[in-house]
Amino acid sequence: MAKTLMRFLVAESEPAEARDKRRDSVGRSSGETYLDVLRELAPGAMCDRVKPADAGEPPLGPAEIEQYDAVFLTGSPLHLYADTPEVRRELAFMRAVFASGTPSFGSCAGLQVATVAAGGSVRPMGVRREAGFARGITASEAGRDHPLLRGRPAAYDAPAIHTDEVEALPPGGTLLAGNAVTRVQAAEIRFDRDVFWGVQYHPELSLGEIAAALRRQADDLIAHGLAANEEDVAAVADLVDALEREPERLDLAWRLGIDRQVTDVSQRRTELRNFIEHLVLSVRRERGRGEAIGPA
Protein backbone atom coordinates (compact mmCIF):
# COMPACT_ATOMS: atom_id res chain seq x y z
CA MET A 1 0.00 0.00 0.00
CA ALA A 2 1.36 3.43 -0.93
CA LYS A 3 2.64 5.85 1.67
CA THR A 4 1.03 9.30 1.88
CA LEU A 5 1.57 12.42 3.93
CA MET A 6 -0.58 12.89 6.99
CA ARG A 7 -2.83 15.95 7.01
CA PHE A 8 -3.59 17.73 10.27
CA LEU A 9 -6.06 20.55 10.94
CA VAL A 10 -5.44 22.83 13.92
CA ALA A 11 -8.53 24.69 15.14
CA GLU A 12 -7.44 27.76 17.02
CA SER A 13 -10.09 28.57 19.60
CA GLU A 14 -8.60 31.89 20.74
CA PRO A 15 -10.49 35.05 19.75
CA ALA A 16 -8.40 37.64 17.92
CA GLU A 17 -7.68 39.78 21.00
CA ALA A 18 -6.40 36.76 22.94
CA ARG A 19 -4.21 35.75 20.00
CA ASP A 20 -2.63 39.20 19.96
CA LYS A 21 -1.93 39.13 23.71
CA ARG A 22 -0.36 35.70 23.45
CA ARG A 23 1.82 36.72 20.52
CA ASP A 24 2.98 39.76 22.48
CA SER A 25 4.13 37.52 25.35
CA VAL A 26 5.51 34.40 23.60
CA GLY A 27 5.68 35.31 19.92
CA ARG A 28 3.02 32.91 18.67
CA SER A 29 -0.65 32.08 19.05
CA SER A 30 -1.96 28.83 20.55
CA GLY A 31 -2.58 27.46 17.06
CA GLU A 32 0.92 28.33 15.94
CA THR A 33 2.30 26.49 18.97
CA TYR A 34 0.33 23.40 17.95
CA LEU A 35 1.61 23.63 14.37
CA ASP A 36 5.21 23.72 15.55
CA VAL A 37 4.75 20.77 17.91
CA LEU A 38 2.92 18.64 15.33
CA ARG A 39 5.65 19.21 12.76
CA GLU A 40 8.15 17.89 15.29
CA LEU A 41 6.02 14.87 16.22
CA ALA A 42 5.15 13.99 12.61
CA PRO A 43 7.87 15.35 10.29
CA GLY A 44 6.55 16.07 6.83
CA ALA A 45 2.91 16.23 7.88
CA MET A 46 0.82 18.85 6.10
CA CYS A 47 -0.67 21.15 8.75
CA ASP A 48 -3.40 23.76 8.25
CA ARG A 49 -4.85 26.21 10.76
CA VAL A 50 -8.40 27.58 11.00
CA LYS A 51 -10.01 30.00 13.45
CA PRO A 52 -13.60 28.77 13.93
CA ALA A 53 -14.55 31.33 16.59
CA ASP A 54 -13.76 34.29 14.33
CA ALA A 55 -16.53 36.20 12.59
CA GLY A 56 -16.14 35.91 8.84
CA GLU A 57 -14.13 32.68 8.98
CA PRO A 58 -15.57 30.39 6.27
CA PRO A 59 -17.19 27.43 8.09
CA LEU A 60 -15.92 23.96 7.27
CA GLY A 61 -18.39 21.14 6.74
CA PRO A 62 -17.95 17.45 7.59
CA ALA A 63 -16.90 16.55 4.03
CA GLU A 64 -14.06 19.08 4.09
CA ILE A 65 -12.91 18.04 7.55
CA GLU A 66 -12.97 14.38 6.55
CA GLN A 67 -10.07 15.06 4.15
CA TYR A 68 -7.81 15.45 7.22
CA ASP A 69 -6.35 12.65 9.30
CA ALA A 70 -6.83 14.50 12.60
CA VAL A 71 -8.16 17.70 14.12
CA PHE A 72 -6.52 19.43 17.09
CA LEU A 73 -8.36 21.99 19.25
CA THR A 74 -6.30 24.51 21.17
CA GLY A 75 -6.79 26.20 24.51
CA SER A 76 -8.78 29.43 24.68
CA PRO A 77 -10.20 31.99 27.14
CA LEU A 78 -13.70 31.30 25.76
CA HIS A 79 -16.25 30.30 28.40
CA LEU A 80 -18.22 27.42 26.90
CA TYR A 81 -21.23 28.02 29.17
CA ALA A 82 -21.69 31.53 27.69
CA ASP A 83 -24.09 31.96 24.78
CA THR A 84 -21.94 34.22 22.61
CA PRO A 85 -21.45 34.26 18.82
CA GLU A 86 -17.86 33.04 19.28
CA VAL A 87 -18.95 30.07 21.37
CA ARG A 88 -21.78 29.20 18.97
CA ARG A 89 -19.37 29.22 16.03
CA GLU A 90 -16.85 27.08 17.94
CA LEU A 91 -19.50 24.51 18.87
CA ALA A 92 -20.81 24.37 15.30
CA PHE A 93 -17.29 23.60 14.10
CA MET A 94 -16.87 20.82 16.68
CA ARG A 95 -20.18 19.24 15.69
CA ALA A 96 -18.96 19.21 12.09
CA VAL A 97 -15.79 17.45 13.29
CA PHE A 98 -17.90 14.84 15.09
CA ALA A 99 -19.99 14.34 11.95
CA SER A 100 -16.87 13.91 9.80
CA GLY A 101 -15.57 10.89 11.70
CA THR A 102 -12.10 12.45 11.82
CA PRO A 103 -10.16 11.66 15.03
CA SER A 104 -9.87 14.76 17.20
CA PHE A 105 -7.81 15.87 20.16
CA GLY A 106 -8.17 18.89 22.42
CA SER A 107 -6.33 20.42 25.35
CA CYS A 108 -7.84 22.68 28.03
CA ALA A 109 -10.68 24.57 26.31
CA GLY A 110 -10.44 22.02 23.49
CA LEU A 111 -11.72 19.35 25.87
CA GLN A 112 -14.45 21.71 27.03
CA VAL A 113 -15.55 22.48 23.45
CA ALA A 114 -15.92 18.78 22.67
CA THR A 115 -17.76 18.17 25.94
CA VAL A 116 -20.41 20.84 25.32
CA ALA A 117 -20.77 20.04 21.60
CA ALA A 118 -21.58 16.42 22.50
CA GLY A 119 -24.13 17.34 25.19
CA GLY A 120 -22.06 17.69 28.37
CA SER A 121 -21.50 20.80 30.47
CA VAL A 122 -18.72 23.14 31.61
CA ARG A 123 -18.64 25.44 34.64
CA PRO A 124 -16.38 28.07 36.21
CA MET A 125 -14.03 26.70 38.87
CA GLY A 126 -15.02 29.29 41.45
CA VAL A 127 -12.30 29.86 44.04
CA ARG A 128 -10.22 26.89 42.87
CA ARG A 129 -7.34 27.30 40.42
CA GLU A 130 -4.70 25.21 38.66
CA ALA A 131 -2.03 27.71 37.74
CA GLY A 132 1.23 26.51 36.25
CA PHE A 133 0.90 22.78 36.85
CA ALA A 134 -1.81 20.22 37.56
CA ARG A 135 -0.54 18.03 40.40
CA GLY A 136 -1.06 14.37 41.17
CA ILE A 137 -3.09 13.38 38.11
CA THR A 138 -4.14 9.73 38.33
CA ALA A 139 -5.89 7.48 35.85
CA SER A 140 -9.42 6.24 36.43
CA GLU A 141 -10.14 2.52 36.16
CA ALA A 142 -11.01 3.05 32.49
CA GLY A 143 -7.91 5.16 31.96
CA ARG A 144 -5.36 2.70 33.34
CA ASP A 145 -5.24 0.70 30.14
CA HIS A 146 -6.32 3.44 27.74
CA PRO A 147 -3.78 4.19 24.99
CA LEU A 148 -4.08 7.97 25.53
CA LEU A 149 -2.23 7.64 28.86
CA ARG A 150 0.22 4.93 27.83
CA GLY A 151 3.63 5.69 29.32
CA ARG A 152 2.34 7.87 32.14
CA PRO A 153 3.17 6.75 35.70
CA ALA A 154 0.53 6.05 38.37
CA ALA A 155 0.57 9.75 39.32
CA TYR A 156 2.00 12.61 37.30
CA ASP A 157 2.02 16.40 36.95
CA ALA A 158 1.43 18.36 33.74
CA PRO A 159 1.44 22.02 32.60
CA ALA A 160 -1.98 23.53 33.26
CA ILE A 161 -3.65 26.89 33.71
CA HIS A 162 -7.45 27.24 33.59
CA THR A 163 -10.40 28.88 35.29
CA ASP A 164 -13.18 26.64 33.88
CA GLU A 165 -13.63 22.88 34.01
CA VAL A 166 -15.81 20.05 32.72
CA GLU A 167 -18.84 19.75 34.97
CA ALA A 168 -20.38 16.66 33.37
CA LEU A 169 -19.17 14.53 30.51
CA PRO A 170 -21.74 13.88 27.76
CA PRO A 171 -23.35 10.54 27.00
CA GLY A 172 -20.60 8.57 25.28
CA GLY A 173 -17.96 10.25 27.45
CA THR A 174 -15.49 8.23 29.53
CA LEU A 175 -13.45 9.68 32.37
CA LEU A 176 -9.79 8.68 31.97
CA ALA A 177 -7.98 10.73 34.62
CA GLY A 178 -8.48 13.35 37.32
CA ASN A 179 -6.92 14.88 40.40
CA ALA A 180 -7.92 16.51 43.68
CA VAL A 181 -8.59 19.90 42.04
CA THR A 182 -10.19 18.98 38.72
CA ARG A 183 -12.24 15.80 38.45
CA VAL A 184 -11.97 15.56 34.63
CA GLN A 185 -8.32 15.82 33.59
CA ALA A 186 -8.56 13.40 30.64
CA ALA A 187 -11.49 11.90 28.76
CA GLU A 188 -12.63 10.08 25.66
CA ILE A 189 -15.83 11.22 23.95
CA ARG A 190 -17.63 9.14 21.33
CA PHE A 191 -20.27 11.15 19.51
CA ASP A 192 -21.86 10.90 16.06
CA ARG A 193 -19.16 9.30 13.85
CA ASP A 194 -16.14 10.52 15.80
CA VAL A 195 -13.79 9.60 18.63
CA PHE A 196 -12.30 12.50 20.59
CA TRP A 197 -9.46 12.26 23.11
CA GLY A 198 -8.78 15.27 25.30
CA VAL A 199 -7.04 16.57 28.39
CA GLN A 200 -7.62 19.55 30.65
CA TYR A 201 -3.88 20.19 30.85
CA HIS A 202 -1.46 21.31 28.13
CA PRO A 203 0.92 18.67 26.71
CA GLU A 204 1.70 21.02 23.80
CA LEU A 205 3.04 23.95 25.83
CA SER A 206 6.66 24.75 26.56
CA LEU A 207 7.68 25.80 30.05
CA GLY A 208 8.31 29.29 28.68
CA GLU A 209 4.71 29.49 27.52
CA ILE A 210 3.51 28.45 30.97
CA ALA A 211 5.65 31.19 32.53
CA ALA A 212 4.14 33.76 30.14
CA ALA A 213 0.61 32.55 30.95
CA LEU A 214 1.28 33.06 34.65
CA ARG A 215 2.37 36.63 34.00
CA ARG A 216 -0.69 37.32 31.79
CA GLN A 217 -3.02 36.04 34.52
CA ALA A 218 -1.24 37.62 37.49
CA ASP A 219 -4.29 39.69 38.50
CA ASP A 220 -6.47 36.57 38.69
CA LEU A 221 -3.87 34.68 40.73
CA ILE A 222 -3.60 37.54 43.20
CA ALA A 223 -7.38 37.88 43.45
CA HIS A 224 -7.71 34.19 44.31
CA GLY A 225 -4.97 34.20 46.92
CA LEU A 226 -2.38 32.15 45.02
CA ALA A 227 0.02 35.08 45.13
CA ALA A 228 0.28 38.12 47.38
CA ASN A 229 1.41 40.48 44.64
CA GLU A 230 2.85 40.69 41.13
CA GLU A 231 6.36 40.14 42.48
CA ASP A 232 5.30 36.71 43.78
CA VAL A 233 3.92 35.74 40.36
CA ALA A 234 7.04 37.03 38.64
CA ALA A 235 9.29 35.03 40.97
CA VAL A 236 7.54 31.76 40.09
CA ALA A 237 7.40 32.62 36.39
CA ASP A 238 11.12 33.41 36.42
CA LEU A 239 11.86 29.95 37.88
CA VAL A 240 9.77 28.28 35.18
CA ASP A 241 11.54 30.34 32.50
CA ALA A 242 14.94 29.36 33.91
CA LEU A 243 13.95 25.68 33.81
CA GLU A 244 12.91 26.09 30.17
CA ARG A 245 16.45 27.28 29.39
CA GLU A 246 18.13 24.60 31.54
CA PRO A 247 15.76 21.61 31.87
CA GLU A 248 18.41 19.47 33.56
CA ARG A 249 18.64 21.82 36.56
CA LEU A 250 17.45 19.57 39.37
CA ASP A 251 17.58 22.44 41.84
CA LEU A 252 15.04 24.43 39.81
CA ALA A 253 12.77 21.40 39.36
CA TRP A 254 12.98 20.76 43.12
CA ARG A 255 11.98 24.33 43.95
CA LEU A 256 8.95 24.02 41.67
CA GLY A 257 8.13 20.51 42.89
CA ILE A 258 8.10 18.91 39.42
CA ASP A 259 9.95 16.02 37.76
CA ARG A 260 10.81 14.80 34.26
CA GLN A 261 7.16 14.20 33.42
CA VAL A 262 7.11 17.98 33.04
CA THR A 263 10.71 18.99 32.36
CA ASP A 264 11.40 16.42 29.62
CA VAL A 265 9.80 17.51 26.33
CA SER A 266 9.14 13.97 25.12
CA GLN A 267 7.38 12.95 28.34
CA ARG A 268 5.44 16.20 28.47
CA ARG A 269 3.97 15.45 25.02
CA THR A 270 2.93 11.88 25.84
CA GLU A 271 -0.78 12.29 25.08
CA LEU A 272 -0.23 13.99 21.71
CA ARG A 273 2.16 11.27 20.59
CA ASN A 274 -0.19 8.52 21.79
CA PHE A 275 -3.13 10.10 19.97
CA ILE A 276 -1.25 10.12 16.66
CA GLU A 277 0.30 6.68 17.04
CA HIS A 278 -2.75 4.82 18.37
CA LEU A 279 -5.87 6.56 17.08
CA VAL A 280 -4.91 8.61 14.02
CA LEU A 281 -2.83 5.92 12.33
CA SER A 282 -5.50 3.30 13.08
CA VAL A 283 -8.25 5.37 11.45
CA ARG A 284 -5.97 6.10 8.46
CA ARG A 285 -5.68 2.39 7.83
CA GLU A 286 -9.45 1.92 8.16
CA ARG A 287 -9.95 4.70 5.59
CA GLY A 288 -7.52 3.00 3.21
CA ARG A 289 -5.09 5.92 3.12
CA GLY A 290 -2.03 3.72 3.41
CA GLU A 291 0.97 4.04 5.67
CA ALA A 292 1.93 7.51 6.79
CA ILE A 293 5.05 9.33 5.67
CA GLY A 294 6.71 10.86 8.71
CA PRO A 295 4.72 9.17 11.50
CA ALA A 296 5.16 10.24 15.10
Describe the structure in brief.
By secondary structure, this protein is of the alpha/beta class. It contains twelve helices and 13 strands.
What does this structure look like?
The structure is a single chain. The chain is 39% helix and 23% strand. With 296 residues, it is α/β, with parallel strands linked by helices. The chain starts with a strand and ends with a strand. The model has no long low-confidence stretch (mean pLDDT 94).
Write the layout of secondary structure elements.
Layout: E1 3-5, E2 7-11, H1 16-26, H2 30-41, E3 46-50, H3 62-65, E4 70-73, H4 85-100, E5 104-107, H5 109-117, E6 121-124, E7 130-139, E8 155-162, E9 164-168, E10 173-178, E11 186-191, E12 194-199, H6 207-216, H7 218-223, H8 230-245, H9 250-256, H10 260-263, H11 265-268, H12 270-286, E13 291-293
Parallel strand pairs: 1-13, 2-3, 2-4, 4-5, 5-12
Antiparallel strand pairs: 6-9, 7-8, 7-10, 10-11, 11-12
Helix pairs in contact: 1-6, 4-5, 6-8, 8-9
Quick tags:
296 residues; alpha/beta; 12 helices; nine-stranded mixed β-sheet; two-stranded parallel sheet
